[in-house]
Protein: Uridylate kinase
Organism: Halomonas piscis
Amino acid sequence: MPNETNDPLIPAGQPAESSKSSATPSSYRRILLKLSGEALMGDHEFGIDPKVLDRMALEIGQLVGIGVQVGIVIGGGNLFRGAALNEAGMDRVTGDHMGMLATVMNALAMRDALERSNIRSRVMSAIQMSGVVEHYDRRSAIRYLTSGDVVLFSAGTGNPFFTTDSAACLRAIEVDADVVVKATKVDGVYDKDPVKHADAVKYEQLSYDDALEQKLGVMDLTAICLVRDHNMPVRVFDMNKPEALLNLVVGGREGTLINRG
Ligand SMILES: Nc1ncnc2c1ncn2[C@@H]1O[C@H](COP(=O)(O)OP(=O)(O)O)[C@@H](O)[C@H]1O
Ligand SMILES: O=c1ccn([C@@H]2O[C@H](COP(=O)(O)OP(=O)(O)O)[C@@H](O)[C@H]2O)c(=O)[nH]1
């Protein structure tokens, strides 16, 4: 049922067609954007490139400008990954805790860039961090999104052994986003890793089951199971392509759509 009551706690989740009749030219009313930590590095080997943050803030601002509600989950792979720390000898859960804290740092940096561009934003964390960021609360998050604030969901799911892809899918389902938009370094999902195979063929569209059966590697299987079980569409696109984000949100053919098929 479309939300016709203006109650912020009634899910936005309007199908694309119904929101087309509203003031926004967007195909989507509420999106969950997943940014990988590595996307924030730019040309560097580690850390955060402020120029990349500013460019992303600009692109996110374009979405806010046309009335799209934007939730963001940022990864932490530019700083720490639990699995990599574990391979180097560290306890896995400790490594995952460090990875989740890395996502909070990235979210703080992104908020800083958004605010410098005069885009209202809030950071919420799955791990309580009083005095630094607000603890994640679904109802508050929906209120913020409805009021037009960009909400950065940090610290992943709050649990070790998960990824921020799973966190993005989880938060998208919880706040009833219309779509998960996954920004990567490649321009969609291919039949094999396009970075390793020059002859890889891109999919325009892919079903959840095909993505699972073929283990296509662009998103972890836990995340795909979650979106499949809740019929949440995912679009994978290239964040380095200028205007690609805006284009896909207004209905352009960017990247690969993963859905029921
Ligand atoms: N079938 C595939 N289609 C597209 N990308 C793939 C595929 N298999 C593996 N990949 C890799 O997945 C990466 C994108 O996922 P992403 O989550 O952004 O990266 P990371 O896991 O390094 O944070 C791409 O850089 C690409 O090399
Ligand atoms: O719910 C979560 C999300 C993330 N992480 C940890 O945080 C790291 C950074 O997240 P991710 O690898 O998903 O970042 P990205 O690849 O998107 O940069 C992961 O490797 C995990 O160690 C975790 O333990 N639980």
Notes: The first strand starts at residue 30 and ends at 35.
